[in-house]
Amino acid sequence: MEIQTYIQKKYETEVWVNKPSSERQGDTVSWTIGIIKEANRPDLPRQKMHIDVCAIPSFDIEKRPLINHYDIVVPTEGILVPVQSLQETLADKLIALAYRARRIKPRDIWDIVWIKQRGINLSKTLVEKKLVARNKHIEDFRQALSMQLSKLMLEDEVRNDFNMEMSRFIPKQIKERTLNNPEYWGYVQAEINAIASELLNDGAVKKPFDMG
Fold first, then answer.
1. How many CB atoms lie within 10 A of CB 188?
2. Of 60, 80, 92, 199, which one is least surrounded by beta carbons within 10 A?
């Protein structure tokens, strides 16, 4: 496979590349790359990296510099690359939350709240553009989002799945102040409910005990 050979030569490491399934799911296909991190440790599993390729255009592009997280000299550091804005990513995450067929994906929940914490506001215009690009109708989206929101608010299975999966990825210090805090899940529910309500209620979020 050309991709596998290219990666092995460029990075001088053993990799495996799995093509997307022939049964395409919607507008996105996933490639899986397996990497041997420590060849002398056969007891350690291969690190897997999933690369999703989506046939949907981006509408809000920004240029951001590549960040070097590993304190090694790389020629690509600081290069400006076009990326999708966080505001558009928020729109994508809400659409993904609505249309996950099998279960609510914990990473979608985490990312929505994470983006909100960075002061990013919901753009209904971007949500509508992304729905049109996917040939989805707004009423169908609202119905799907409402069903998922109900699961999030009422089902303990969603919380348990969220805690179990995110515990695998987040650093210990972040876990201690989030997942390990008994008040955290209620905060997550409130944040998701607030932003979903903007879409379900045409942006008019009802105030409890509204006194005019």
1. 19
2. 80
| pLDDT, tens digit, 9 for 90 and up, residues 148-163 | 999 999 999 999 999 9
How confident is the model over 74-132, as pLDDT tens digits?
777 778 989 999 999 999 999 999 998 788 999 999 999 999 999 999 999 999 999 99
Contact 186, 110 (CB under 8 A): no
What distance lies between CA 160 and its chain's CA centroid?
18
Measured over the CA atoms of residue 188, residue 202, residue 122 and residue 169, the dihedral's sign is positive
Distance (Å, whole) CA 127 – CA 138: 9
pTM given for the model = 0.78
Three-class SS state of 11: helix
